Amino acid sequence: MIETILFILTGIYCLQLSVLLFGIRRTRVHPLSKDTPKVSVIVAGRNEESSIESCIQSLLESDYPEDLREIILVNDSSTDNTGEIMQRYAENHHNVLYVVVEMESLHMRGKANALAEGIKRSSGEIYLFTDADCRVPPQWIRKQVSYFDDQTGIVGGFTKLRSRNWFTGMQALDWFFLYSIAAAVTGLQKPVTAVGNNLCVRKEAYDDTGGYEKLPFSVTEDYILVHAVKQTGKWKIRFPLDPETLVESNPCPDPHALFRQKHRWATGSSDMKPVDFLIFIPVFLLHALIIFFPITGFIPALAAFSVKTGMDSIFVFKTLSTFKSKRLYRYIFLFEILYIIYVLLLPFQVLFRKKVIWKDRQYEK
What we know:
Layout lengths: L1 H24 L13 E7 L6 H9 L8 E8 L5 H11 L3 E6 L8 H11 L5 E6 L8 H6 L6 E5 L2 E3 L4 H22 L11 E4 H6 L12 H12 L3 E3 L8 E3 L5 H14 L5 H18 L1 H4 L1 H25 L9 H21 L2 E4 L2 E4 L1
Parallel strand pairs: 1-2, 1-4, 2-3, 5-8, 6-9
Antiparallel strand pairs: 4-7, 5-7, 10-11
Helix pairs in contact: 1-6, 1-10, 1-12, 6-13, 9-13, 10-12
């Protein structure tokens, strides 16, 4: 009986990824516009002195017309030299603005508060967001803007992690897998999220939500904004699989930081609709039966694990090929172990651990 259930769950998992593969094929949309509207690039940073300068420099190297772009640097109450670095760039570049956030309210907290302050100072028709530990390619602004037409409110993009060893390589493969899911469901016209380190929003679409001031607080401000734009019913959301818009970011330095990150993401998305959780249940059960192989039997569990690994490899192939990252396949088994662990642990973490640690601050769902 257990073996039959395991076989059925494996089949459901393969079917789900097959549907997502169809969605991935629809993400490679062609750019829609050659317009060059004024844009505002907003970077919020808290205690990012080791990486913020590299981020700013990459933005200054953009090939987008200088008179049509502004860079807004938001110092989110940093206690290191982040603010001094930001201020120096603002003083030396006419299109760089420096904003300081020193206070939070019960509703406006964390990164959402910092981004809202940056948006208040902006004058662009399109907002582009990236993180202080990221680097963007020179064509990033121009190419992301080109995906907007009159009906498009949000354009997402992929981010890769810099990988140097097995631990960072495993994370890099995990990110490509998760971004592929986000892009695939968007291609199926069922967008769930886009990630704030590579996110573009039309000002009009943002205003239609009331802005972060009107949205409920979330430790995943990107997720809550995408859902708010989606709920207006007015705007399309695009998530192109485009190597020219690929952003680079830093991996988590250790397992503790990695699971804090996973916990924050899971907590922020815990208000998904019941139907979304129903889709997740077979995934959870499949991973549970694989890990508890003394119950299911070693051979059936190994067979299910092998089929799942093969299907995951097929699913992420297009993404890895597009971004010239197929070398990450060497970490596929480490990724599978990581995937099983967080799929099984995070639901209980979200249920019983309400406090989230983020940028040396503590939040409670």
